[in-house]
Specification:
By secondary structure, the protein is α/β, with parallel strands linked by helices. The protein has 2 domains: about 130 residues, Rossmann fold (3-Layer(aba) Sandwich); about 180 residues, NAD(P)-binding Rossmann-like Domain (Rossmann fold), CATH 3.40.50.720. About 30% of the residues lie in helices and about 15% in strands. The chain has 11 helices and 12 strands. Helix 3 links the parallel strand 4 and strand 5. Helix 4 crosses helix 6. The chain is globular.
Amino acid sequence: MKIVIADDYQNCVRSLDCFAMLKDHEVSLCVEPAASEAELVARFADAEVLVVVRERIRITDSLLAALPRLRMISLLGRHSKMIDFEACTRRGIPVAHGLASSPVAPAELTLALMLAARRNVVPEATRMKAGQFPITLSHRLAGSTLGIFGLGVIGEIVARAAQALDMRILVWGRDASLDKARSMGYGVAASKEALFAESDVLSLHVRHSKDTRAIVQRADLNRMKPTALLINTARAELIESGALEAALAAGRPGFAAVDVYENEPVLNGDHPLLKMDNVTCLPHLGWADRNTFELYFGEAFEQVCRFAANEPLRLANPDVLAKPGRT
């Protein structure tokens, strides 16, 4: 089969051990982000199978209509808001999904951002390379308060590591998060407002859904200390659109470290946060370590091999089974 891996932004998929699973197929990889749907059509014109990362490209009905050879999509991750599953089903295209969950990589990146931003690692390293003398004072983590909004699996890893650094842990979220916090001996904020007001570092670990979209409002950010740091390695949509930029410009919070954006990838430095000296920005690296890639791509490739062998798939659109074939 002709397989296109739609978004190998790290240009690393061929180096993964799991890539050998596709040795019997003709595989092409796309490294640079596409500028338009027309460019996607050109890239995917001969594809029988697409392997797509969860939220990197948009699979629309119009794109599917322009790909008459496409027979199957294999998705990294469990779900994607970027795929029109109804259109795939209507056109008889099965979408296989993954099962894996890898909380360690995003938790580690959250900790890396916290340490880098609090201790001014990026600006000082940049100054040294430029031959400038270091001029900043940083903020100690020990003795400070880490606020965690959403004590799920990722938040729990972050909390355990921060506690080892002698940080006080303060939690807010749904009842399950608060119950877990109490059972682990962490502090529970009196309210969401109190969490934002009391945290020296506040890390978002809320799952994105229609109920949590814009759950962080400008008023919440305004309650933060002028010395506080907000970290977002979860989803940009958790924060009211434009609120973080406005709050940082106003000085509350004083700092931010982010790995997620409403429109990704961010190209050509085209984002207001990249123009702010009090923000540390990364290009959505939370999941991008070799172990996680082996796990996620391995699942996706396994589904491709099952499709080639006419074996049952793990379907995100099970209703497609009722279709006699592509229309």
